[in-house]
Automatic annotation (TrEMBL):
Database matches in Pfam families: MFS_1
Protein name, per record: Putative MFS family arabinose efflux permease
InterPro entries per record: MFS (IPR011701), MFS_dom (IPR020846), MFS_trans_sf (IPR036259), MFS_Transporter (IPR051788)
Domain of life: Bacteria
Domain Major facilitator superfamily (MFS) profile: 11-381
Key words of the record: Membrane, Transmembrane, Transmembrane helix
Coarse class of the protein's main subcellular location: membrane
Amino acid sequence: MTTQSTNRPETRLATRLAFLVGGFSLACWAPLVPFAKARLGVDDGVLGMLLLCLGLGSVAAMLATGMLSARYGSKPIIIAGGLGLALTLPLLTIASTPFTLGIALAAFGAFLGSLDVAMNIHAVEVEKSSDQPLMSGFHALFSIGGFIGSLLVTLLLSVGAGPFVATVLCAALMIIAIVVAWPRLLKTVPSEDAPLFAIPRSFVMLLAILAAITFLVEGAILDWSALLLTTQGLVNTSHGGLGYMLFAIAMTIGRLGGDRITAKLGDKAMMLWGGLVAVIGFVVLLLSPIAILAMSGFLLIGFGASNIVPVLFRKGGTQTVMPAGLAIAAITMTGYAGVLIGPASVGFVADHVGLPGAFWMLALLFCAAPFCAGVVTRNRDQGEAGTETHASYRSVDT
């Protein structure tokens, strides 16, 4: 597949809007979960199965998107994914039975998964035509979109707007963003000989495993950090969410500044030192006897981990041992699997060695990032682009 080689600000804007819509749409659903449970009158077990439909839809679509993007490019998938999210979001508020909500969640997850893969493929192409790294900034927009979406839906619900009205308003904003991005997205020339499936090679598998570890850590902190802080007696129950809040803020700030740092230091240093900072954050969190020190641990984990995934996606998009679209789909799917199994795996380990022991396990797993930094970022004959200098970010489009 060949790509319109361009370094126009419009293409960057379109990519940022795609990431913004992705984070925004997912966050719009989160405040609606209690309403869905009350409307259907289901217990926690049924609700958990319904939420699993979203994940299953996402994973299935990620696999299909990798195949389709290799043949048709990322632009039509971004458009379809973004508009599909906007159209299905209000349906989540009016589904009247568990079956219909499950179908709606699966469709919503499918559109989200396809957008997730396609926007990362598009981001790689845009970055290739630039003279500087851009991936961290794109991923920061996903986090900012999540914050805006959650805040907006919460505000609309708090002033008396019903779930359906709130989601219709949010859907309208998403449609506007996609319409603005539409003509600015990169056009690609389909490659007739692009395979629809390729078994991930060893290098891509390494990237996928590292992505899974990073997403696993993020998901575990989301679901277990409050319980860790409260059971350790560091904060009371009402303040348990402060840990994840600080982690999320640090993650977003780290990504907003990550491109400038990567341009100066390179991907290897970003992975090496970022991974070490995150591991040190775990040590500070788990050994601190007072709350303020423990909270600084969350900041360190967020800052350190913030730019690991952007590096992994960049390397997946620039290697040539398999089609970039399929590689990014594999990395995305495996990373998402880490989010899905992370909370459950932490709970399983905590049952045997306690919650602090489970967090030590996360710290040990995250050591893989700095340990593999040299392997992931090494220049290779197979075509992975090196990023040790600023100039290495210049266009490699054909």
